[in-house]
Amino acid sequence: METREETLGKLYALRAGLSYIAQEVAPIYQEEGDLRPYELMDHADEQKLNSMTESQRKKYDEIQKIKEKAEERSTFEEEISLFEDDLEDDKKTAKKSKFVHSVFILPLRILGMILVAVGILSAALAAFTFIDGWIMELIPEEYFWTCIGIGLGGLVVFGGIGWLLLAFTIESKYEKAKSSVKGTNNIIEGLKEDIETSKTAEKELARLRQEGKQKKREVAEHKREVAKRTRPIYYALKESTESFISERDWENLDLVIYYFDTGRADTIKEALQLVDRQKQTDMIVNAIRQASSEITTMIVTATRAVISAVDVACEQICSRLDSIDSNIGKLNASIDANTAATASLVSATQLQNALMAQANRTSAQLASDVSYLKGEYALMRRM
C-alpha cells in the first residue's frame, strides 16, 4: 500500500519534471520577445506591441524610424522633380530679368537722375524769380510763365523719380529672380542629401531584415536543441505518471496536489474527480491560481517524509532516462543518441531545484511550456 507521502512525492516529482522543462523553455521566450520587433516591422499587431518590454519597444521604435526614413525616398524624388520644373521656370525668368537689367537699368538711372536734377534746378530758378518779383511788388500776372516754369520743373522732378522707381523695380525683380533660383537650388540640394540619407536607411533596413531572419533561425535552432534535451524527460514523465494521471490533467496538477494534501481527497482518483467538478463550475482558472499559491508554501514547508518521497520519485524518473532511448529510439534513432546522453546528465537534485525555482508558477503555466515544445517533439518523431 502506497503511503500518503509516497503519493505526494510522485505528484511533486511530476511537477519537478514539468518545472525543469519550463526552465529550459524560459530563455526561448526571451529570445522570441527580442525577435518580435523584427517580426512586427511590416505588420504591426497592437496586442503584441502592448506586450513588449521597454527595451523591445525601444528597438521596435528604432526600426520604425529607419523604415520611415527609407520609405521617404520616393517622396523626395517626386519633390525634386517638381522643384526642378520650378527651377527651369525660375531660370527663364532670371534670364529675362538679367537682360532687362543689363540693358535698361543704367540708362534709366542716369536719365532719372538727370531729370530730377534738371527739374529741381528749373523749379528752384523759377521759384527764385517768382519770390524776387513778389518782394519787388510786381504784378503777379507778369510772372505767369515763371509759375509755369515752376510747375514744369516739378513735373520733370516727378518724371525723374518715376524713372528711378522703374529702375528700382527692374533691379528688385532681377534680385528676386536670382534669389529664387538660388533658393530652389538649395532646396534641391537638400532633397538630394535626404535621398542619400534614405538610401543609407534602405541599406540599414535590409540589414535589419537579414538580422531578423538570422535571429529567427537561431531561435528555431535553440528551440530544437531544447526539444532534443527535454524530449526524453517528457517521455519519462509520461511513462512514470500515466498509471495515476494522464497528460491532459497535468495542467490541473496543482489542484490535484492541493485536494490530496489538504485531505479533501484520499486518492489521486478522487482528487481528479473533484477537479472535473470544479471545471463544471467554470471556476477552474481561479481555483488553480489559489491552489498554486497554497502549493508555493507547501513546497517550501514540506515535511522531511514528503521531501524524501519526492527525492525517490525524482530518482525513479531519472532512472527511466537511461532506458528512454530504447522506448523512443525506434522513432528517431539519429537524434536519440544525443538526447539520451544529454538527458542522462539530469539528476534528481536538478529536478528538485527546478521544483523550487518554479514554485510560484501554476501547473497550467508549466504544462503550457511543455505543450510549447510538443510540436518539436512531434517533428522529431516524423524524422
List keywords for this structure.
single chain, 383 residues, mainly alpha
Share in helix: over 70%
Termini gap: 43 Å
Low-pLDDT parts are 135-139, 324-344
Task: Quote the beta fraction.
Answer: under 5%
Domains counted in the coordinates: how many?
A: 2
Q: How many β-strand runs? A: 0
Largest sheet: none
Quick recap:
By secondary structure, this protein is mainly alpha-helical. The protein is 85% helix and 0% strand.
Question: How would you characterize this protein structure?
Answer:
The protein has 383 residues and is mostly helical. The chain has two domains: 4-27 and 221-382, no CATH class; 71-208, no CATH class. Helices cover 85% and strands 0% of the residues. The chain has twelve helices and no strands. It has helices at residues 4-39, 46-50, 54-71, 73-135, 144-241, 253-261, 268-280, 284-300, 304-328, 333-343, 348-357, 363-382. Helix 5 (144-241) crosses helix 9. It is rod-shaped, with a radius of gyration of 47 Å. It starts with a helix and ends with a helix. Mean pLDDT is 74; it is low at 135-139 and 324-344.
List the helices and strands and how they pair.
Layout: H1 4-39, H2 46-50, H3 54-71, H4 73-135, H5 144-241, H6 253-261, H7 268-280, H8 284-300, H9 304-328, H10 333-343, H11 348-357, H12 363-382
Helix pairs in contact: 1-3, 1-5, 1-6, 1-9, 1-11, 1-12, 3-5, 4-5, 5-9, 5-10, 5-12, 6-7, 6-8, 9-10, 9-11
